[in-house]
Design goal:
The chain is α+β, with helices and mostly antiparallel strands and 374 residues long. 24% of the residues lie in helices and 30% in strands. It is globular and about 70 Å long.
Length: 374
């Protein structure tokens, strides 16, 4: 079975007014366009060309959700649970309706995810930076009493990062939040050297979310700038926030998000602290293959796999080992099975059922192939 899928963009406030329209070669709608979902998730199943939605074909059995994501403003600082944490949370909240304002868990699954940049620049906050490196950054902010208070917290004994997150997010930090943000904004105007990009990124976040404790949390996180074709994998427990840019995102089929700032949505600080992994460290950037038509983005989860294919008249064969999607991101792409074919405009998807065994991707352009992992 070979089906063509489309979907309407979701109009979250952080979405871009132009990025998805530019990708698809159409006029902007005038409203923010944040995400396009290609999957059978009940929140927004993809439309099947001709009639119906994908969940009517799959029965809601896809282990992954593929998206286009376009951010003009920061997304919330957030973390996703492990399977065990999700199952526990789902069981604890079992008596609450799914739309209850105090519910944190929408399902019993984890939500690891992979983002690959489609824009020339994609900014994100990914994981907690090693403390000694953050102390070095704070030196560039000057010696105000509020910055000194943050330094003292980070230099403490035990799990200093967890205790600092709690101090910032539960309201205990008080005026220190405003003072630290003021130091960031002031430093951003003159800072040079190693920390210039990160400090200026946090200052831009402060413009969107003035006074939000999440701005100070952002100071503790790795600031990544992805170039086109580069990716970042976000495991369960890893604190993160996308800041700006256009990308392809794939994740386990879940809607479990615990938020810690930069959002008007529900924030549950104790629950976030119970699942966040405060082990600091750099998060590696996954880079596209230098030669050959296929790049495999290696991820350590069985829920999904993602390949990038560049075609230039020579067809590329793709083994189908489960329900598979092919998303066209540039040019003119055709997906062919043994008996049929689908021509894809940029931003459209071909869904390939597992019984096809193999398909060919041809034409001139770029496509991303999503499938279950191993």
């Amino acid at each position: 079975m070979l089906l063509r899928l489309t979907n309407a963009p979701r109009d979250y406030a952080w979405g871009s007014d132009t990025l998805l329209a530019e990708l698809e070669g159409r006029e902007p709608t005038g409203a923010p366009e944040a995400e396009v979902w290609f999957g059978d998730h009940p929140g927004d199943p993809a439309d099947v060309d001709g009639d119906g939605t994908l969940d009517q074909v799959t029965g809601g059995s896809l282990p992954y959700l593929l998206k286009l994501l376009a951010a003009a403003r920061p997304l919330s600082i957030q973390v996703h649970p492990t399977v065990e944490q999700a199952q526990d949370g789902w069981a604890r909240e079992g008596s609450l309706p799914l739309d209850h304002p105090e519910r944190n868990y929408r399902d019993a699954n984890h939500k690891p995810e992979l983002l690959v940049a489609l824009s020339d620049r994609f900014e994100s906050l990914s994981g907690l930076r090693p403390v000694d490196r953050t102390l070095d950054l704070l030196t560039a902010l000057g010696g105000s009493e509020h910055v000194a208070a943050l330094r003292d917290r980070l230099a403490g004994e035990g799990d200093a990062l967890r205790e600092t997150l709690e101090w910032l997010l539960d309201g205990s930090a008080g005026a220190a939040v405003e003072g630290i943000i003021a130091a960031v904004v002031e430093a951003s105007a003159t800072i040079e050297g190693e920390w210039q990009t990160a400090v200026r990124a946090v200052a831009r976040i402060a413009e969107t979310y003035p006074g939000d404790p999440g701005v100070v949390v952002a100071l503790l996180m790795n600031h990544l700038v992805l170039r086109r074709g580069e990716g970042v994998f976000l495991r369960a427990g890893l604190l993160h926030a996308y800041l700006s840019g256009l990308g392809v995102e794939i994740m386990a089929a879940s809607d479990n998000v615990l938020r810690g700032g930069l959002t008007p949505k529900r924030i549950d600080v104790p629950e976030l602290l119970s699942i966040v992994d405060t082990t600091p460290g750099e998060v590696p950037v996954l880079r596209p293959q230098a030669a050959g038509p296929v790049t495999v983005y290696d991820v350590p989860v069985p829920d999904f796999a993602l390949h990038r294919i560049v075609v230039d008249d020579e067809p590329v064969s793709v083994a189908v080992e489960g329900p598979t999607m092919v998303l066209a991101t540039t040019g003119s792409v055709r997906v062919e099975s043994a008996e049929t074919s689908v021509d894809l405009s940029v931003g459209a998807v071909a869904f390939v059922s597992a019984d096809e065994g193999e398909v060919r991707v041809s034409g001139t352009g770029e496509a991303f192939v999503a499938m279950p992992g191993r």
